[in-house]
């Protein structure tokens, strides 16, 4: 029993050390070079206690790039639509836990081990950037295009394009799609967000499994 306690204590200490180093060590180590037109594209990162999303402002190019969302009934052409919000995550937890009161053991177990992944897409109106769970960044056109490429590549492709999951969504303004990759506790929704932001030319921590560590590293290095 003493050996087990010692092992668990060492394991917890190792995880905490990895999380601290993952926040404090930047990735990439050196800032990326910015292209012409620096700072012309504004994106937002949104967080809650366990999850982060990326909000991309609508324009004609973004609407054309993600036109398939209209086929699933998302109001991407609505005048009040300002942002399209993307998140990647575990299938069981995402689909079966719309609110904390509906938390169940099976989705949590899958999230901690291995699960299929899904893309969650939400159409949003105006988002107040001064809120504590919202942070904005400006990127250049080249990196903005690379970010859209990264997001588009996360959707699993079927014979007719991205595969929408029928009867899955929290409201009339969001949809779930099959995604590429597998979800686990080490490679989860926040590491996907971090990788997307690095594609956009921003710096994150080396490993950011939690929203708070990603938040700290984003503020520290950008």
TrEMBL record:
Xref: Pfam families: DUF2459
Superkingdom field: Bacteria
InterPro entries tied to this protein: CHP02117
UniProt name for this protein: TIGR02117 family protein
């Amino acid at each position: 029993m003493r050996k087990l306690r010692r092992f668990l204590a060492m394991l917890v200490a190792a995880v905490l050390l990895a999380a601290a180093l993952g926040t404090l060590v930047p990735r990439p180590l050196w800032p990326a070079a910015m292209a012409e037109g620096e700072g012309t594209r504004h994106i937002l990162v949104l967080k809650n206690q366990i999850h982060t999303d990326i909000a991309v402002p609508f324009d004609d190019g973004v609407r054309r790039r993600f036109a398939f969302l209209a086929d699933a009934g998302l109001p991407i052409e609505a005048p009040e639509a300002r942002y399209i919000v993307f998140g990647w995550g575990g299938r069981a937890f995402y689909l079966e836990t719309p609110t904390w009161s509906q938390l169940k053991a099976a989705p949590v177990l899958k999230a901690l081990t291995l699960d299929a992944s899904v893309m969650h897409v939400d159409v949003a109106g105006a988002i107040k950037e001064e809120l504590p769970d919202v942070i904005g960044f400006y990127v250049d056109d080249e990196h903005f295009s690379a970010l859209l490429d990264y997001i588009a590549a996360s959707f699993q492709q079927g014979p007719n394009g991205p595969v929408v999951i029928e009867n899955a969504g929290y409201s009339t303004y969001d949809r779930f799609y099959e995604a590429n990759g597998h979800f686990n506790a080490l490679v989860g929704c926040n590491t996907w967000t971090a990788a997307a932001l690095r594609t956009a030319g921003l710096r994150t921590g080396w490993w950011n499994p939690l929203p708070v560590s990603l938040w700290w590293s984003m503020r520290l290095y950008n």
